Amino acid sequence: MKHTTAFSSKEYDRKIKQTLPYYEEFYKQIINVVKCHFDNQISWLDVGSGTGKMAELGLELSNRFVLLDNSADMLDIARKQVNSGKVDFVLKYAEDMDYEKEFDVVTAVQVFHYLSADKRREAICKCYNALKSSGIFITFENFAPDTELGTMLYLNRWKQYQISQDKTEQESKDHIARYGTEYFPITIDNHKMLLKECGFKAVELLWCSYMQAGFIGIK
User: Which stretches of 49-179 are DSSP H helices?
Assistant: First the structure.
């Protein structure tokens, strides 16, 4: 199954800031958690790494950093933005990973909501397998509200945010229309349940605003 972002690789960073409220905060939260959980250099896998933003911010905390993405164009941009011998660039789908107990940290920012239920489970279980014992998985995803009325309210609020960031009415409407058709969010409770079913011994909600939420799973 091919799963792709709404934006081309060249315009990705600019467009995603127009689209996702508090996008920069996702990364601040991840870095803060990693710093609190580890006091030594770590091995880090970023799944769906895009233009390499996670490595730019987390490289100083790691002795090995792997950027994995299914887009060769994204990885080409990441290579230009992250120039370090500690970084490996891997062209692969998340559900095709075969790492076993290699990483202290696995991250995935706005990646798995493009997948079907079965593929999402497979990808998250692969992230679990990639972690060492007591390693942490941190993911930020779009989530589905619990009710139909809540969904209508949240989608309208999200649309108004995008318009406030200089997207046109039509651009904002088109992006909101992708909900449930091109990406498939699940509720916060279902996110937490899925992480537990994949084996994580501790699962916590890290952060939530608009229609995005962050989760931590500890192996």
Answer: 53-58, 72-81, 117-130, 148-164, 169-176
